[in-house]
Design goal:
The complex is a heterodimer of chains A (360) and B (296). With 360 residues, chain A is mainly alpha-helical. Helix content of chain A is 76%, strand content 3%. Chain A is globular. Chain B has 296 residues and is mostly helical. Chain B has a two-stranded antiparallel ribbon with strand order 1-2. Classes of the chains: A mainly alpha (360), B mainly alpha (296).
Amino acid sequence: MSIITEIIETLKKTPPARLLTFLALTGALFIFPQAVDSPYALHIMILVFLSVIMGGSWNILGGYTGQYSVGHAAYFGAGAYATMMMMQFREIPPWFGMLAGVAAAIAAGLIIGSICFRLRGPYFVLASIAATEIMRLSALNLKDLTNGAEGILATEIPPLSIGSALITDFSSKAPFYYIGLVFALAIIGVTWLVQHSKLGYCFQAIREDQDAAHSLGINPGMYKQLSLTISAAFTSLAGSFYAVYIGFIDPTTVLSLDMSVQIVLICIIGGIGTIFGPVVGAMVLVPLSEALRSNLITQTLISAGLVSEESPVGQFLKENLAHAHVLIYGILVVVVILFMPEGVLGFLRKRLAERGSKTA
Amino acid sequence: MDSSSLQPLLLFLQSLISGILVGGVYALIGIGLTIIFGVMRIINFAHGDIMMIGMYLTYNLFTLAGIDPFLSIVVCIPLMFLFGGLLQKVFINRVLNALPQNQILLTIGLGLIMSNTMMLIYTSDYKILTTEYSSGSFSLMGLSISQPLAISFVITAVITAFLYWFLMKTDMGQAIRATAQDRQAAQLMGINVKRMSIIAFGLGAALAGTAGALIAPTYYIFPQIGSSFTLKAFVITVLGGMGSVIGATLGGILIGIAESLGAVYISSGWKEVLVYVIFLLALLFKPSGLLGKSRM
């Protein structure tokens, strides 16, 4: 009960305008699929939600507790594999697979955490990468269990029904949209709770100065593990969601270092340790990388007359730029680290504050 | 003794030798990483990608100009040195005092740019550099030794010896070591720390690029090969002790042996798992490495 009163107390302190904006935006997002009848727009939104869940869950551990895990693909992969293995090989609906994934991710988090949390700084980063690589190589080698490098292809998603009432058969993108939206709102809510709760204060104390926090009676090992547990559980949900939505997983996509880096980048680009950082990061990254993937950028360059379609450069861009959508991640992270080390959100806030102080 | 009882021993020695030969090149990659870490306390996550650029450089020199891969290091070393120096001057220098995680992310970003740019230029197809001696081997005391691996090991040994002499005996080498020991004190002694950082990153990149040139005849060449070597380089440097050149040499050879024996006695699929398990154990029980002083 104390948690609920605490929530209400904090909500009372939040400016009502901000609260109303948030509620209005959420409401708009719930109506969106009814208003917009474009599967592609829904697809982009679903990818944004997925990125919000990924970045938001990393944010709990990396942003609020200061533990820069570059191995979150481990938990993402645990969710994805648990769901797909149960759905494809045992015909168990993904809802149960998702829960199994969360359990697997928490278990993996316990093992990885007990090893990695003894280490600090770069050593922690390296250990988190190594642990995830062990998981990737295991998934690659345990062929009987995981299908190895071939990956798992979903043939059919069982329909969701409560009792005898069919709720959805997943024939359109709308159910995925709503599931993604609910998960994304959940992780934003959890982040908000973390920011305003005693638990969150302990996390942030460890981030600011682990030794000082320890001397004040905060057990760093326990709180880091708790933070990882929350983070791993939500990352695993993102993995399950990804697996069912995309319908195909293999070790080189869901358990790779690239996936871990991508999870971190969503957060870094938006602004780490902030509630809406991952949202901003997702809204920057997803459209950009989709624009590259779908050759939108090449087409724009050609139609703007900058590059002729027949010229070798135009041909080259047309054929290859789509394959290099990861390039944008690289360029963005370099730009963000060099020029906006607090992320897009922090950068904008600072700019606004500067402008405010000038006019004042 | 009949030959059948000799067989297991022969197999063991055979894999030991090939492990040591591969380990030599690993050592080169590890030494590069350890010099960069020693001087700047920055972990270079783009290290494997720099090596990958060295591979493509060698590949191009071979296919376009017909230069032998082992001769190409004469071109590769200075070019990669300049490339590394440039990276340091333009990017790394700006984050020397930033949070360690931001430094790591910057180098990760640079690595992504390198691998994806190469993918744009060369596509992600596997390239093979075939020389006359690519699959050649000679036999030594009943053991068959791969010719390209043996040549690359000899070159590695020469480079490592030269590097050690450079760091120990020359003025510039001593200045680099002084910077690594205490950046501020070195600056107070009149050492141009910024310049030493550029040289150190250049050296690291040159070593990684050279390693790339040396393995080009024996490995597939593709843009994403870097990340697995980056990880291997970390394992090697942590094992040897971050910042220790001799430690990295030892670590490289140890990892080469572990991989080679693991491939024979466990399975080639699991050999890399063995490497990471050794890595985690080393981090847990001997975090200062075999030869390094604890820096944790």
